[in-house]
Structures are given as C-alpha cells and as structure tokens.
Automatic annotation (TrEMBL):
This protein's name: Probable queuosine precursor transporter
HAMAP family associated with the record: Q_prec_transport
Family from the record: Belongs to the vitamin uptake transporter (VUT/ECF) (TC 2.A.88) family. Q precursor transporter subfamily.
Chief site of localization: membrane
Entry keywords, A to Z: Cell inner membrane, Cell membrane, Membrane, Transmembrane, Transmembrane helix, Transport
Topology in the lipid bilayer: Multi-pass membrane protein
Residue ranges of the TM segments: 21-41, 47-69, 81-102, 122-143
InterPro entries membership: YhhQ
Coiled coil, from the record: none
Keyword Iron attributed: no
UniProt-annotated location(s): Cell inner membrane
Pfam families: Vut_1 (PF02592)
C-alpha cells in the first residue's frame, strides 16, 4: 500500500501482515519503562516548591507509546508489549537483587551508594509490577473501546480519558501496596493524588505529540486498526483475536 493511504480494518484481519514500526515501538516502550524505574525512581526532586520522584518526568512517555500502540496496532499487540514490559521489569528486579546482594570486593567503597540507588524492597517491586500491569492494560482497554464507540473520532478525548483510568488504576494499586502502614494514610492519599494528576497533566500536554506520531505511523503503515471482535482478556500475550 502506498504511503499516505490509510485503510480501516478490523484487528482480526491484520493477521501476519508485516508492520514497519511495531517492533521499534515495543523496544522503545520497554526501554522507557525500565529506565524510568531504574534511573528516575530513586531520586526525589523539588521544583517550584513541589516535590516529586524524578522518574515521573519520563514514565508518562510510556503511556504515550502505549496509546500509540493501541491506536495504531490494536489492543492485542499493545497487550503483548505490556507483557514484554512486565517480564523485563521482573528480570530487572531479580538482577538488581542479585547484584546488590553480591559481596563487594575488598577496597570497593561504593556498596552503600549502590544499595541506596538499586536496592528496593520486594514489597515495592511487587507493587510496581502489579500497578504497571493493571494500569497499562486498563489504559489500552479503555482506549480501544472508546475508539470503537467514537468510530475513531476525538483522539484527544480517548488518550486523556484512557490515561485518567489507567493512571488511576496504577496509582490506586501502587501507593497503598507499597507504603500503607509505613506512611500515614494522609501521606499515601496526598502522594497518590498528586502523582496521578501530574501524569494525567503530562498526557494532556503531550497530546499534540501523540497526534503527530499516530498520524505519521498510520500513514506509513497504511492501517487504522479497530478492535472489532477482539478478545480483551488481559491474561494472554497472543496477538490472535479469538
């Protein structure tokens, strides 16, 4: 199909058709997920009197990519990326635990700093994994269903609406699972709402970028996927629709 000609098709009709950019989007999605958790999660920053985890500046890019994946390639392929990200995070957690637990060489002075940056409790790791998995799948589900309901119109409403739900699920799971009992109820609620609002705000700000990327990729792929007849179960990584 010539570049610029976009064909509306059901997700089930895509089959094994070659896709130009899907693999790149999957790789970018997993990379941003890992790096935002590995590099940004351990640092607190304050700007304009607001304190936040530094990773929040980049983690929402994963939601933008998730929106692009669902909008362009359909729910099943976005779900496959979520499972790939889940597996990558699980391996990252295991590798971090092994490397931190290894006894340092005599004379190596940085063990304490290494533990501060890369050491996480299994409670936080578990909360992060569950919240990511549920939040991303909720985001993709809402976006795909809204696309069917609106017949592909109002992309801005679909991306922001799905992020409100997806990040809401993520925050509602992560902060109580990770910090309930260690923080006061007020602290948990305050950080949960603040971070949810910041992430949704980022999604709104990045809406023009989402529009540009979605339009470009649809034209290059020549496809506009609608999840008609898709099996929306979260408990599979297959790209088949049945």
């Amino acid at each position: 199909m010539d570049d610029g000609a976009v064909q509306r098709i059901g997700a089930g009709a895509l089959g094994a058709r070659p896709l130009r950019y899907y693999d790149f989007f999957m790789a970018a999605f997993v990379a941003i997920l890992l790096l935002s958790n590995l590099i940004g999660a351990a640092k607190l920053s304050t700007l304009g009197g607001v304190t936040f985890g530094a990773g929040i500046l980049f983690f929402p890019l994963g939601y933008v990519l998730g929106d692009v994946l669902t909008e362009v390639y359909g729910y099943a392929r976005a779900r496959r990326c979520v499972w790939a990200g889940f597996a990558a995070m699980l391996f990252m957690a295991l590798m971090s635990w092994v490397v931190v637990a290894l006894p340092p060489a005599q004379g190596w002075p940085d063990q304490a700093a290494y533990e501060a940056v890369f050491g996480s409790t299994w409670r936080i790791v578990f909360a992060s994994l569950i919240a990511f998995w549920a939040g991303e799948l909720a985001n993709s589900f809402v976006l795909a269903r809204m696309k069917l309901h609106t017949q592909g119109r109002h992309l801005w409403m679909r991306t922001i609406g799905s992020t409100i739900v997806g990040q809401g699920v993520d925050s509602l799971l992560f902060y109580p699972l990770a910090f309930y009992g260690d923080w006061t109820n007020a602290q948990v609620a305050t950080v949960m709402v603040t971070n949810w609002a910041m992430k949704v705000g980022w999604e709104a700000i990045l809406t023009p970028v989402t529009y540009a990327v979605v339009g470009f990729v649809k034209r290059r792929e020549g496809l506009d996927i609608y999840d008609e007849g898709t099996n929306f179960t979260p408990f599979r990584a297959s790209i088949s629709q049945g």
